[in-house]
Amino acid sequence: MGTPRPMLVYYSSRSGNTLRFVERLGLPALRIPISPKAAMPDPRAPYVLICPSYADGSGRGAVAKQVIRFLNDPQRRAGIRGVIASGNRNFGSYFACAGDLLARKCNIPVLYRFELAGLDSDIARVRAGLDKFWEMECSTAT
Amino acid sequence: MKDLNAPRPVPRAVNWNRLEDDKDLEVWNRLTSNFWLPEKVPLSNDIQSWSQLTAQEQTLTIRVFTGLTLLDTIQNSVGAPALMADAATPHEEAVLSNIAFMEAVHARSYSSVFSTLCNTAEVDEAFRWSSENPHLQAKSRLILDEYDASATPLRRKVASVFLESFLFYSGFYLPMHWSSRARLTNTADLIRLIIRDEAIHGYYIGYKFQRALESRSAAERAEIKDFAFALMFDLYDIEARYTEQLYDPLGLSEEVKHFLHYNANKALQNLGYEALFPEDAARVNPAILAALSPGSDENHDFFSGSGSSYVIGKAVATEDEDWAF
Asked: What residues bind Fe cation 2, as annotated (chain B) (predicted)?
């Protein structure tokens, strides 16, 4: 067995910001569908979730319903290793708060935060960070 | 050619149980749950802080707020109504009517700040200043020309996103600057409510722009992209001069321009475009970022941090209701 390929799972609404970020990352990634009728992806390897934040002014509703549905399945949830959260600083203290929420619920680290579709430096940092992160994952996996 | 004498068609009654675009309901819910009025913010707690600003700082603040009032007024009375005529769904029209109303609330809020902190004569002087300021008038002119009936729906959306996501920020900088120095903190709370609303407005109109673009030819897409970047350059030129005029006396112009670049890049992203200004030029003073999103950087993230060890725990059972907080 070689090292497990780093896997990403992401959600992007039709505004497409997260999709554009993932496309520029150029890493293998499964998309959680927008439509509740479409089939959920089934990552067989450990994965990192990339997730936008949709909180209202009180922090409610931060995680998209489809992401919640995806994670409500115990087998799929068991594979999550970290979360990368996006958002907009204009939402004040709730900037990228889906990350903190998921980190608490799933007991995983927030790996990174970025705004909207991300900048080139965000892409570079996430690529480098994921490399290191998967190395550590592999060395600690039993 | 449209028959100008044709009677206005009866609109379809809006049925929110038959959506053509889920984003309409999502944004409607977000905007309505975020509804606020300036009375909710205890502005009078800033009276002492206001008295500690120099006369020059006070004048600057009032002028900046009259400039913001003008943009909100334009968006309330011209921008959002102009977009309503272009709406792709009846629900979009309803969302735009919310946007129009909230712009009126924003415009009204600045007057609440004025009536709490300032005297009538200096406020009247600032409104006179804004009506005569060449840069403020020039950027309003550029936007209004695109709202005009002779422009196209796509151009109107570009202009609207630039107003919502770019033009406000030469003004928003100042209350964030005061807030980072523990001054006018209640006024900053009010401004953050406005900033939050404008983010959703820019996001939604930018989203509708991208949807409208889907059905256009490659040539049309290239043309509107050229238009968008050209308009951004023109607006930026004006904003840079407006910024220098306002902030040079405080030595803040260069820092404000970084903030303008940062927000111009975000405005372009709302339209689905790539950033225009290089990251070095768009790096914002961390104190301003912290004032924008207070507390959000307290939990450092893994890739930006030192890479110290962390613990992966066991995933716990989650249900739908666990997530609703």
From this structure: 103, 164, 198, 201
